[in-house]
Amino acid sequence: MSVRAPTPDQLAAKWAISEVIHRYCRGLDRMDKALALSCWHPDGTDDHAPLYAGSATGFIDWLWPVHAAMNVTRHVVSNTLIDLHADGTTAGAETCWSLVLQTPQGVQTFDIVAGGRYLDRFECIDGVWAIRHRQSVVDWNRVDPVRVTLADFAATPLIDVHNPEVPATVPRRDAADFSYSVLGHIERH
Questions:
Q1: Which pLDDT does position 87 carry in this prediction?
Q2: Cβ(121)–Cβ(56) under 8 Å?
Q3: 72-84 and 40-47 as β-strands: parallel, antiparallel, unpaired?
Q4: Which of 19-23, 150-154, 165-169 has the highest mean pLDDT?
Q5: 27, 100, 124, 142: which is deepest, by most CB within 10 A?
Q6: What are the phi and psi torsion angles at 180 (to 5°)?
Q7: 131 and 44 in contact (C-beta within 8 Å)?
Q8: Do residues 72 and 50 touch, judged by C-beta distance below 8 A?
Q9: Which is more confidently placed, 169 or 28?
Q10: What is the DSSP string of the chain?
Q11: Looking at residue 85, what is its pLDDT?
């Protein structure tokens, strides 16, 4: 099977679609609701059933307090395949995802670890690529109790610290995260 070299317009479309997929992860992990919502067209839909199925706005509204109650969320995507349709304004994409959701339950903390795929239908309207419909498929998952962290080894570290006088960059789940000083101009379409 021979594959034709993509045109500049096709490359631009694939880049724009990839940016949407990555913006979604950043929006969720930094608790940036506007950034997360910017990934769908205003009338876009999302199916994370049985957790949620309906409008994308409804999905984000449902998800926000769920994620806000967690200590950490980490969404990672890979192996994205994008199929640009002949009309030039629609596309399909399959993206593998993995995530860790750290959630407190009483006095115990758990890591929810899962992997799956986003199956997205994209549309370009007025030059803006966004999700028309997202179907999330969970391929596997598990829940692990968090028994220890590196902080539990402060007296006898597992890793030799080279610069103990330099404070670590503290992660945040809002616009105060250091990443906003680097990526402060990510567009919200």
A1: 94
A2: no
A3: unpaired
A4: 19-23
A5: 27
A6: -70, -20
A7: yes
A8: no
A9: 28
A10: ---PPPPHHHHHHHHHHHHHHHHHHHHHHTT-HHHHHTTEEEEEEEE-TTS-EEEHHHHHHHHHHHHHTSSEEEEEEEEEEEEE-TTSSEEEEEEEEEEEEEEEETTEEEEEEEEEEEEEEEEEETTEEEEEEEEEEEEEEEEEE----GGGGSSS-SS--S-TTSPPPPP-SSTTSTHHHHSTT----
A11: 96
Residues belonging to the chain:
189
Q: Which two tokens stand for residue 156?
A: 């006898």
Return the pLDDT at 166.
Answer: 79
The answer to whether the peptide bond before residue 104 is cis (omega within 30 degrees of 0) is no
Query: Once rounded to an integer, what is the mean pLDDT over residues 122-150?
Result: 95
Distance CA 152, CA 146 (A): 11
The radius of gyration of the chain from alpha carbons, rounded to an integer in Å, stands at: 19
Token match 């899962």: residue? 114
Residue keyed to tokens 């059933």? 49
Percentage of the chain exceeding pLDDT 70: 95
Six token digits for residue 145? 């109790």
Q: Averaged over 141-156, what is the pLDDT? A: 86
Q: List the structure tokens of 172.
A: 């945040």
Structure tokens at 106: 């009483």
